[in-house]
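Researcher: Please predict.
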Amino acid sequence: MKATPARDLAARAEQIKEAIALLQLEIQQLESEGNFAPTDTWVMRYKARSQKGYYWYYKLQAREAIFPQATDSTKRSKYKHLGKAGSPEHIDAVIQVARRGKIDALQRAMSSLYESWLSLYEESQPESTPPNTSK
């Protein structure tokens, strides 16, 4: 059976659909593995000073104030203190940020595939010729 342009188009559309489903499945798997950091957050290292010297600490930082403040939970902060390197909070935050990055990348890939699917739809439409305006 000879492949027609319509069959080729349908086959490509099906491949895109299957790829999107695969990426959705990967996102669901990542979400089931545990919590993930909010969008636009990252782990930062900062130096704190005490009477005995300097210490490195870690914080989860966001572009906007989204974390409850330690002193007043009704107010929000851009920072969430994580403690020293290797603390459970620090390690958990790093894993959550990594998980968020993976989810974001998969969502971008899905968006790209969806746009490709839309271009297939446009490809399937007969080309319209502009009306003849010459007299």
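Model: Residues 26 and 32 are 10 Å apart (CA to CA).
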